[in-house]
Design goal:
The protein is mainly beta. The protein is built from one helix and eleven strands; from the N terminus they run E-E-E-E-E-E-E-E-E-E-H-E.
């Protein structure tokens, strides 16, 4: 499912599943790239890697510990106890809450599927962690770098959409989408 070239879009292409040798935990890894009206953005942290939980993608029931299905999802500002778009803590400590995040919508019946910072092997039960590089299952996600990437994405979206970006948490973000491609399986 390619991007449409309209509005703010984050394109995620899933590449593979990794399994950690020490405990057998699995994660899905891929790349992300931000686009403005179809134009690739080259700004710092507007491209990189993503980590998600294992596959296959499944939106059929909440709490299934699977990655979200491939597809196109509108975005909203997040209004939760752990993650928010406005009012997150100005701290690089992984224990500081709330942390920055953006919510994917139309994932029914699943909800609270977010783009948020990762830490360690994976910080997700269906959400998407932005990171720099995950060449193998032994590479850990650094929280401070992941947090910086999530904030960069939020700020880029605010700048691009300008007055169209909501001013409160829990609101739909017009003309902003995540497009996810791929359903890799563990070899």
């Amino acid at each position: 499912m390619p991007i449409t070239g309209t509005g703010w879009e984050m394109h995620i292409v899933r590449q593979s599943e990794q399994r950690r040798s020490s405990d057998g935990k699995r994660r899905t890894v891929g790349t992300y790239q931000v686009f403005h009206d179809g134009q690739k953005q080259t700004g710092l942290d507007l491209s990189g890697m993503v980590a998600e939980t294992r596959g296959p993608g499944d939106n059929s029931q909440p709490g299934n510990n699977r990655r979200v299905e491939a597809g196109r999802y509108p975005l909203a500002t997040q209004d939760g106890a752990k993650y928010v778009t406005f009012g997150y803590k100005e701290s690089e400590s992984s224990s500081a809450r709330p942390k920055p995040g953006i919510e994917l919508k139309e994932t029914d019946p699943r909800e609270e599927i977010l783009i948020h910072p990762g830490i360690g092997f994976l910080a997700s039960i269906g959400c998407i962690n932005l990171c720099t590089s995950l060449p193998d299952a032994e590479e850990m996600i650094g929280f401070a770098h992941s947090r910086r990437r999530v904030i960069a994405v939020i700020e880029d979206m605010k700048s691009f959409l300008n007055s169209g970006f909501p001013t409160k948490n829990g609101k739909k973000i017009p003309k902003a989408f995540v497009v996810i491609e791929g359903e890799p399986t563990f070899p």
